[in-house]
Amino acid sequence: MNKLKEPNKVHEFDIPITMDDNTKKSFKGYRVQFNNARGPYKGGIRFHPQVDLDEVKALAFWMVIKTAVVGVPLGGGKGGVEVNPKELKETELEKISRGWVAEMADHIGPRVDVPAPDINTNPQTMEWMLDEYEKITNDTTRATFTGKPIESGGSEGREQATGQGGFYALEEIAQKLDLKPESSSIIVQGLGNVGYNFAVLAHNAGYKIVGMSDSKGAIYNAGGFDPEEIQKIKKEKGSVVDFEGVIKLTNEELLEQECDILAPAALENQLTSANAAKVKASVVLELANGPTTPKADKILWDKKIYVVPDVLANAGGVTVSYFEWDQNLKNQHWTEQEVLSKLEPIMKKAFQDIWKAHVDHNMDLRTSAFMLAVKRIISAMK
Hints:
By secondary structure, the protein is an alpha/beta fold.
């Protein structure tokens, strides 16, 4: 157990680049390889001004748990560069991406460590990184990075994988708590890729989407919305709050409105000791990473509100990353239908395993998920 408290390896390095104006600049790069008992290290690389070693360490541990929860044969790691991408040109971001790989090439690889995109990185970033890695190593499997563009070996279905996985988790908890779609309402906080895809799937399945938000604010309508219409308004006018004839709220107020399922899909630490007691939902489905603080967790559990934890609810993304890696190693390309038909049983089995631990030990779902994951990791380490 002690071995699980500290990462296996920590890489901290400088990435010197020549900027477009010919000045020299150096950026701090990181990769924490936490645990590989169950398979190669797996986890994203983020470009953010606040990236530091503590954050990367915590996120790397999270990945170890997440891959173990869904049972895919991977470990956990995380990487980052301390940079504000908004201040850089694309050519400079490319140099940083390639510089990160130049530092890490000896420590990553299809059977060693498989990075992916994270905050402020995307398929283009992965394409630069893959290209640099191939130049340095001559490896042509394309399996060292996931989240790549389709034409560079990326997987179909990756775009909606996290929202789709969250929807499968919703179906399972709804069954356990006897929540019928036609009489159940959902609030989705955050209209990024994950929140939007989840909202569309839930709406199409008959659930009523009563609240939605973006970074500028939130809207609520007890009669429900069509998420695709909301997205259209957001694209045309700039925000969901430009939608007419609905109640306008702040993101904080949205979390306290009437609904059956609350799906925080934006930032961490949204449900805290200050507002958890005001939550009216019977289920919190964590589509974001870490939206609930430990104190809020306890308040929600005491109120008998089920929290489907992020390590399960948003693990559809890492599961489809695993599929991408698998396709690359086998030199195959699966259809979107094949990808989703493989994702569903994995998500549903993970939920059932966690639910069984919850019933057997009378613990909240997060503790059950962590207990299950740690058991699997320790047994692999032995």
